[in-house]
Amino acid sequence: MILDTLDHAARYESLNSRFAKAFAFLRTVDGTQALGRHDLDGDLCFALVQTYETKPLEKAKFEAHRKYIDVQFIFSGQETILWAPLASMQEETMAYSEEKEAALWKLTPDFTPLHVSAGHFAILWPQDAHAPCVEWEKPEQVFKVVVKVAVQ
């Protein structure tokens, strides 16, 4: 897991051959992008533009992916992303689904809250269980882009 600002994104581009495309797209985000999927390199790298209101902690569920790394970028607003090692997940609520490319778990009491505000991103690998979209201090409207980068 990495948490940083978009100003420092170039430091991470060598970690995956598609991160440069991901960060190049994120640098163009101005809040006017159409919601939904934007192909950057077909199914190997694509962005999901979304807006939503953050939810209370008790509604959060951990998720993890197998085929993709998430680069979660907040353009506006702020949220908490809960992080924990995948190995610490205990009570599965949805078995891994190929179609959804995710598995889900109930909250575990042992997590690290990542406070993410405008201009910040988190990189989450398949071993990083995460519960995004959680309120930081209060419910807030968020404009977010999640770039899905295929694991190499």
Would you summarize the structure shown here?
The chain is mainly beta.
Helix content: under 10%
**N/C terminus separation:** 16 Å
Q: What percent strand?
A: over 45%
Task: Provide the structure class.
Answer: mainly beta
Count of alpha and pi helical runs = 1
CATH superfamily: YhcH/YjgK/YiaL
Low-confidence stretches: none
- CATH classification, class level: Mainly Beta
> What is the total number of structural domains?
1
What's the CATH architecture name?
Sandwich
User: What radius of gyration results from the CA coordinates?
Assistant: 15 Å
How would you sum up the global shape? Answer: globular
What integer is the average pLDDT? 97
Count all strands and give the number. Answer: 12
Give the neighbour order of strands across the main sheet.
Answer: 1-10-5-12-3-2
What kind of sheet is the major sheet?
Answer: 6 strands, antiparallel
Strand and helix order = EHEEEEEEEEEEE
Here the CATH topology equals Jelly Rolls
List its traits.
mainly beta, Jelly Rolls, 6-stranded antiparallel sheet, 3-stranded antiparallel sheet, 1 helix
How would you summarize the topology of this molecule?
Blueprint: E1 2-5, H1 19-28, E2 36-39, E3 45-53, E4 62-64, E5 68-76, E6 78-85, E7 92-97, E8 102-105, E9 112-117, E10 120-124, E11 128-134, E12 141-150
Antiparallel strand pairs: 1-10, 2-3, 3-12, 4-8, 5-10, 5-12, 6-9, 6-11, 7-8
